[in-house]
TrEMBL record:
Domain Protein-arginine deiminase (PAD) central: 154-313
Any GO CC annotation of this UniProt entry: nucleus
Any one Pfam family match given in the protein's UniProt record, by short name: PAD_N
Protein name as catalogued: protein-arginine deiminase
Gene: LOC101722077
Localization of this protein: Cytoplasm
Required co-factors: Ca(2+)
Species this protein is from: Heterocephalus glaber (Naked mole rat)
Keywords in alphabetical order: Calcium, Cytoplasm, Hydrolase
Family from the record: Belongs to the protein arginine deiminase family.
Residues in Protein-arginine deiminase (PAD) N-terminal domain copies: 1-31, 68-152
Length: 710
């Protein structure tokens, strides 16, 4: 409840006041001001404040105390209040000290009794409501005097989609912002798409509308301003935003209701515009506005912004009064939260598969593109090929960007997060993906260049998980970094801060600095399943691979060779690999790094051992860092139940690759389809695999992010 403001009555002259519908007004019936302690309100009141001014003239401040002392008859002991039928009168008192009078008895004047009044409809005319306070010496005496209060009720309210239904409804309750299914508060979308195809930049960079379609991305606001037109001749309505919030929100007003042209809309609040005097037309009871977000939550921004409307008295009094600053007679404030950027895990259905067309010393990757087309067809997913003229022969499209989305009750659209990595694909997200209803966001490194860990192959998100009593209905973001408290490589702080500030997918930092490239997608992936768990975590496992090779040796297949079928690669038999002391030691080291991450994943994602599947994979060290010894099968692209897995070229036993057979045995009972694709020359030899060279836009979650409690 907003604080009440008190109106002081006079025995000599009527007092005139403006009260706001739904607000509570404290009528001071005591000598020299209340000077009372806190009282318990017997009947709960509405929010709000009030205004009041004396009927003629203004007392100078030094005369005010003497004036107040004469506002109650000297011998008065009790009082009675009567009012117009549309005025509700409530008596607030401490029941331990005061007994409510019955019959014709009056209220005691010297006790802790307050008079609180309120109205629930706007006045038709000025001063059409009245409150009368009569003072008595004894219960049966005639009154010693009367004080008259004439009220003009005005309905002023700022309303947004606080109930999160997609429509603005009048809301007299709490207008703050609260998380959860029973929460409240409006949601603001960052207007980061480009609704005008002729524009070269996101809509939020322009202070004026560029398309009427742009209005669909904005959150509606309704200002109620009902009351006698004459009242608004003497009072003004001012819309305001704080200096800090002005950099994060922009508000537009239609110059006429239902504007049909972009020129009908005027920016009234935002950067360099902290306040706006509302232009109200005669008889106008509601005025529409719309708001857009200008920036996502970040380290210096919680995501909350507020807008306020103030009712201000414009009457100028005596000369001493002119020097006083304008003080709002009533303020109503609404809160928005800027919608977070949300990632989508592999368990969400694929919508679009992106891949680059490139050419190198081994020729074009046309065969790989054909394999991707067949995979997309099986998954009923659209294939988008980025041509060489747009990728400048940069094939690592997963490293360049990450797809996500933003959502409000009235609108949702995808948003691409452009990584700080600046290579051949650096212009593709901005120039080709940014479009109507497809937004763009990035974070720049101002004082240093990007490291390999700033690429978005080092960014993933889990499916929804529950960890103890904590639910993560949108999953948790996973990033790779250095071993805790070491001085190794980490993802740039500006990116980590951005991801954490979104709040709805609390990030977990894994240890990936042991890898040459250093990306989490080199040792883990998630695949969907149809059982109650809904997914499995796949972890690369040198130990599982060595066990498999040892088993095949014991079965008599020790001479079966790795890299069979690759004419340009030296074959290594199972016996040779098992006897290679360096390869075994490298594998033990890598397994210890992966096991450390395994424990973190189990702890931070609430996983059981049965939720993890070990995928056989060997690594070898090049200096201090590890690289995949053969195509890294965990680095796959997941399109629903269809998995595009790097072909490992493992030992052929009975006409089949034993590595492929093992992976099929592990995954196909879960309802998954393993499709092995040759990426050796075009990707593996360049220290990447299928996941690195593809990108997938997925269907957003059905779960509404505002229903969770971070």
């Amino acid at each position: 409840m907003a604080p009440r403001r008190a109106v002081q009555l006079s025995l000599k002259k009527p007092t005139y006041a403006v009260c706001v519908v739904g607000a509570e007004m404290l009528v001071n019936v005591h000598r020299g001001g209340r000077g009372r302690g806190q009282c318990r309100v017997c009947v709960a009141g509405a929010r709000g404040m009030l205004s009041a001014k004396l009927s003629s003239g203004h007392q100078r401040p030094r005369d005010l105390a003497e004036h107040l002392a004469r506002d109650v008859p000297r011998d008065a002991k009790t009082f009675r209040v009567s009012a117009s039928s549309k005025v509700e009168v409530l008596m607030a008192y401490d029941p331990r000290r005061v007994t409510e009078p019955t019959g014709k008895a009056h209220w005691p004047l010297d006790a802790n009794v307050d008079v609180v009044i309120s109205v629930d409809t706007a006045s038709k005319d000025l001063n059409d409501l009245k409150v009368k306070v009569s003072y008595f010496k004894h219960q049966e005496d005639d009154p010693l005097g009367h004080s008259m209060l004439y009220l003009t009720a005005v309905d002023v309210s700022l309303d947004v989609d606080s109930s999160r239904t997609g429509k603005v409804k009048r809301h007299r309750g709490d207008k703050t912002w609260r998380w959860g299914p029973e929460g409240h508060g409006a949601i603001l979308l960052v207007n980061c798409d480009k609704d005008s195809r002729g524009s070269l930049e996101p809509d939020l960079n322009r202070s004026q509308l560029v398309s009427l379609d742009d209005l669909q991305d904005m959150s509606p606001i309704v200002l109620t301003c009902d009351g006698p037109d004459e009242l608004f001749d003497r009072h003004k309505l001012v819309l305001s935003v704080s200096l800090s919030d002005s950099r994060r929100v922009r508000v537009f007003r239609a110059r006429a209701p239902g504007g049909t042209s972009i020129f009908d809309y005027k920016g009234v609040l935002g950067p360099q515009h902290l306040s706006y005097r509302v232009e109200r037309q005669l008889g106008e009871r509601e005025i529409g506005f719309c708001a857009e977000g200008l920036t996502f939550p970040d380290a210096d921004f919680s995501g909350l912004v507020s807008l306020s409307v103030h009712l201000v008295d414009t009457v100028v009094g005596m000369p001493w009064h002119r020097a006083l600053p304008e003080v709002p007679l009533f303020t109503d404030t609404v809160a928005f939260r800027v919608a977070p950027w949300i990632m989508t895990p592999n368990t969400q259905l694929p919508l679009e598969l992106y891949v680059c067309s490139v050419t190198d010393a081994h020729g074009s990757n046309e065969k790989f593109l054909d394999d991707m087309a067949n995979l997309a067809l099986k998954a009923n997913c659209k294939l988008v090929i980025c041509p060489r003229v747009e990728n400048r022969n940069d094939r690592w499209i997963q490293d360049e960007m990450e797809f996500g989305y933003i959502e409000a009750p009235h609108k949702s659209f995808p948003v691409v997060f452009d990584s700080p990595r600046d290579r051949g694909l650096r212009d593709f997200p901005y120039k080709k993906i940014l479009s109507p209803d497809f937004g763009y966001v990035t974070r720049e490194l101002l004082f240093s260049g990007a490291s390999s860990l700033d690429s978005f192959g080092n960014l993933d998100v889990s499916p929804p998980v529950t960890v103890g009593d904590t639910e993560y209905p949108l999953g948790r973001i996973l990033i790779g970094g250095s071993f805790p408290k070491s001085s190794g490589r980490r993802m740039a702080k500006v990116v980590r801060d951005f991801l954490a500030a979104q709040q709805v997918q609390a990030p977990v930092e894994l240890y990936s600095d042991w890898l040459s490239v250093g990306h989490v997608d080199e040792f883990l992936s998630f695949v969907p399943t149809s059982d109650p768990k809904g997914f499995r975590v796949l972890l690369a496992s040198p130990s599982a691979c060595l066990r498999l090779f040892q088993k095949k040796k014991e079965e008599g297949y020790g001479e079966a060779a790795q890299f069979a079928g690759l004419g340009h690669k030296v074959k290594r038999s199972i016996n040779e690999m098992l006897a290679d002391r360096h390869l075994r030691n490298d594998s033990f080291h890598v397994q210890s790094c992966i096991d450390w991450n395994r424990d973190v994943l189990k702890r931070e994602l609430g996983l059981a051992e049965d939720d993890i599947i070990d995928i056989p994979q060997l690594f070898s060290l090049k200096g201090a860092y590890a690289e995949a010894f053969f195509p890294d099968m965990v680095n796959m692209v997941v399109l629903g139940k269809y998995l595009g897995i790097p072909k490992p070229y493992g030992p052929i036993i009975n006409g089949r690759c034993c590595l492929e057979e093992k992976v099929r045995l592990l995954l196909e009972p879960l309802g998954l389809h393993c499709i092995f694709i040759d990426d050796y020359l075009s990707y593996h030899r360049l220290q990447g695999e299928i996941h690195c060279g593809t990108n997938v836009r997925r269907k957003p979650f059905a779960f509404k992010w505002w229903h969770m409690v971070p």
